[in-house]
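Researcher: I'm comparing several assemblies side by side, and this is the next one on my list. It has 1348 residues spread over four chains. Same procedure as the others: predict the full complex and return the structure.
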Amino acid sequence: MIIVMKPQAKQESIQRIKNIIESKGLYAHISAGKEVTIIGVVGDKTRLQDQNLEIYEDVDKIVAVTESYKLANRKFHPEPSKIKVGNVVIGGGSLVIMSGPCAVESKEQLLATAHAIKKAGAQILRGGAYKPRTSPYAFQGLEEEGLMYMKAAREETGLPVICEVTSLNAIEAAVKYVDMLQIGARNMQNFYLLKEAGKTGLPVLLKRGLSATIDEWLNASEYIIAEGNPNVVLCERGIRTFETATRNTLDISAVPVIKEKSHLPIIVDPSHATGVRAYVKPLSLSAVAAGADGLMIETHPDPARALSDGAQSLTFEQFEELTRELRPLAALMGKKF
Amino acid sequence: MIIVMKPQAKQESIQRIKNIIESKGLYAHISAGKEVTIIGVVGDKTRLQDQNLEIYEDVDKIVAVTESYKLANRKFHPEPSKIKVGNVVIGGGSLVIMSGPCAVESKEQLLATAHAIKKAGAQILRGGAYKPRTSPYAFQGLEEEGLMYMKAAREETGLPVICEVTSLNAIEAAVKYVDMLQIGARNMQNFYLLKEAGKTGLPVLLKRGLSATIDEWLNASEYIIAEGNPNVVLCERGIRTFETATRNTLDISAVPVIKEKSHLPIIVDPSHATGVRAYVKPLSLSAVAAGADGLMIETHPDPARALSDGAQSLTFEQFEELTRELRPLAALMGKKF
Amino acid sequence: MIIVMKPQAKQESIQRIKNIIESKGLYAHISAGKEVTIIGVVGDKTRLQDQNLEIYEDVDKIVAVTESYKLANRKFHPEPSKIKVGNVVIGGGSLVIMSGPCAVESKEQLLATAHAIKKAGAQILRGGAYKPRTSPYAFQGLEEEGLMYMKAAREETGLPVICEVTSLNAIEAAVKYVDMLQIGARNMQNFYLLKEAGKTGLPVLLKRGLSATIDEWLNASEYIIAEGNPNVVLCERGIRTFETATRNTLDISAVPVIKEKSHLPIIVDPSHATGVRAYVKPLSLSAVAAGADGLMIETHPDPARALSDGAQSLTFEQFEELTRELRPLAALMGKKF
Amino acid sequence: MIIVMKPQAKQESIQRIKNIIESKGLYAHISAGKEVTIIGVVGDKTRLQDQNLEIYEDVDKIVAVTESYKLANRKFHPEPSKIKVGNVVIGGGSLVIMSGPCAVESKEQLLATAHAIKKAGAQILRGGAYKPRTSPYAFQGLEEEGLMYMKAAREETGLPVICEVTSLNAIEAAVKYVDMLQIGARNMQNFYLLKEAGKTGLPVLLKRGLSATIDEWLNASEYIIAEGNPNVVLCERGIRTFETATRNTLDISAVPVIKEKSHLPIIVDPSHATGVRAYVKPLSLSAVAAGADGLMIETHPDPARALSDGAQSLTFEQFEELTRELRPLAALMGKKF
């Protein structure tokens, strides 16, 4: 941590900051520059948590030099993590595709989808049973009934299953049925939910919030890991910007940035990022070329009649075409698929 | 709802859309333009919820002409709402100021603050007992102990109290102690929490999400009202933009926009919007001049040692100076204070 | 300037950076922390301009501790600047209102407007003769003919006049007719234009770019001042965000932030910020309450038929009502009007 | 164009709009819905340019159903355009790489770079002679001297050359030396410059503005094409968002969106988009996989000493490694390289 003083800071203002730092058992390293004086803090900065140095006289700003997340930080854990979901490993050199409907609507819909995506090469079945919808008048999900269908689909196809959870209730139900929990974009900073998901020990897919910085996202993952659950996979799904041609703006740079800052695997969801079916294929290819460990792709037997997000869902034929085109690219990128 | 067809749309594509609309008992009004044909849907559009018309052949885009929120919509409820919190009325022609510490730290801290803000003119005491913090290593709040202090402060001062809730657990505790629930920015689209808050019947302060559009915000309020609880007050607290001189960007336009689109009262939180103490006074004045029904201002007996957000908290002297300057402005704007 | 090294940076990497700094005649102040080593640079940092230290081995990041703008910086020029436009002074304790049509359409339109706004209290006449329009098929302005009408309006009313310039050609024409040049949002980083505007010596109104940070804006003003022309007034006119209820998002915080960081006066343009006539009054009041030195307000004799931005233009009656409401507020804020 | 009336709009308000539309020789198609009435305009909408219908009584909003750009619109020009730059064709099935230094610093620097990038497979040499820099105190470019070196480099290597222009002066100089003009992000809406660049007849590389929507970008290209110059290539180079881990956010979705909306070729500049050398390779691969027609990559003989943007420049070895990895990917995507 560095404290930058204002130009012409009084000597007593500098001394005051020095005293506070030293009173916490830390060392204050003072560097008097031509224009400004800066004070470096040496030692465990958490001891300064109950101090708001920026409001002391003559303090210009505080600059953090280390990240606040530790467990998710690659600096302290250089090896990439491999996360097991059932018998599937994410981050271990394979390209892992999660696919399925935005919302579970019926057993028939889900089973048909599970068989189709398995045949096309997907390794994990996704399906929403608790749907966070902007309007209270939109379809909200089948809840536990949907989870039961998920489990049935796993039993029939052998695919591990993942479902979004939106409350402690939903977590308590989901742990009985699914292999991986998903925390959606809108709940990325629902810290209570993160902790509860962490406690289950199940692998957690943590979607990036619509306006979350990468640092906030990694701090959110830290909430899960700090509960003793290191099984976190990140999912980039588009951020909110001024552009309206796509529903969100896929931040493809997040893939190499996460690879540099963290050891956690990262997958990409082009369906939610764009909201437009025609852009799913080019952006899937793009994500794999950028180094993503996997993809999350929405599919539906009849997208025109999907109860949620049909406009971005692929038909089974389109999904099969996508995986066919992904194979040589995955090979080129050194990923098994 | 209007369906815009692509140029040179085939006649059969137009007919297909027409058939779908009519099959739902709605009327399709076709207008063949020079370049494009548009189809207006007449009737109850919710019947089309299970249809994703945008992916049918030759459909260019779907344009919504009515808002999806109804209960919060001024079009159907022209009179401004007045929300009672204890004996205080928000939206009824008074300027209502909620003030207090970001986090409740101790009984002494809270009581000192309660007395100071009451003396300076604040009508409601705020205090955080459940703190959503970006990092899991930051102070997370006193939880139920904090709520008890809030109740004690109300008993001593007569001020109604408001506290943020972040989970069903927190709601269940809070209803025993406080007069108003706050849903924070990070939980604005935690729809489960919105519904549970709605069910309590207590007035709810709904903060705007960091990247929420005004339409999404009003839709979120709709979740609360749809539970039979019309007692919602909105709070603008800054949105996320590229600007970094302030923590967030206060969207002051939200005040007149909400006044036009909704009957719900709106207050402004300049403390969280800027994160900088020096900007709280000018932005408070600015909010009142824009027509806000109230303010939420953070105060602390010793901001330099606050456990949360000290850099944006006012001292009691600064708060008193602020309310002194607000009085003639409130009068000028026709608001009692 | 501070160089933050990576954890476990090799001693030779630290030494390499130290050598580079010292080879430029600067002093490197090394502070070895628990986790990371930081190097402070003492001396004239511009000597390091031809060095990209961030790509040397083991360098984590570079942190600037001083702003790159000097002439616009309040740290080196604590007194607020007063800028003269004809006989009007901006920043000297008066509330200065510039008003007029978005585009000059005819002599009649402009003269009628000039008389009306003068009567209502405006001190400067604005009018666009060179219109930057998103589409090439929209009305592009009367160019020099428009400037002649501006001059005629000044002669008839005595109001100083301001006009946007979009090229060196336009500047060369404008200096013959107007009292103040305007650099529009889209040209805020047209550095060539900034320099040419600076050379004229005329006062310049510099609008903030749609996605410009406050630091970039002040750096842009530096281009003008560095040409020996200190007569710069800043104009906040909304930034681009995800919100679509208003055309742009008025960043009202820019007013106190600029007051703190710079000595230049700042005015606010609520017409362009919102694009909606109904929001102009509340946001004008809001800007004055936040401490703005003036306003820029679009007016038109018949907004419904304006060739540019009619939807945000006030009628003469509306403008008169606005100035009437501004008077007591200006008095309250200690501003003459 | 559709006019959406407010609920309970008076019959006379509807009639008034109808009359205005018909007075322009257009047809008004009225559709009275359950909640609102909408009016479709049939005919040439440009006749309504001098009407601001949104401010008439009872009008809720105006919805555009057709794009304002025509010449760049794929709807009216379904075949993808092929743009010739010297003997290189962009958009014709090859992957075209432009490379070179951010700023031309000396003849030696430029020639060394030209030879190195040619050897590695680049087809066009880029180099900046007029540098738009945020601060007036940063290196501003060699201007015409730099252009002369560009021409010399072309003569020695046969590579066509491209240079950014920032003023009419720069255009007048550049046409004597270079094969393609570049309009930078900061000048994307410098409409005067766009027209002047259009008049030269030279191919123009139009970079996307930092906060430009795709629609505005295509409208900007329309300014060039409307001058009779169809030789426009678009360049996505990152937009401004709240994320700070990268300098800008590369909007990779722009590639498929542009391919759908326009016939113009699109290339991607990962150097400016991220500002970080380590992210250039993954994002280059990503762009090609998304379908980009080419790349613009900054290279420098000694990035640590580059006078501009060294932190994002590749060494010759890094560039060669990049092109080596791009070859099999280009082949997979069906592009010659």
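Model: For your comparison table: Residues 271 and 312 of chain A are 5 Å apart (CA to CA).
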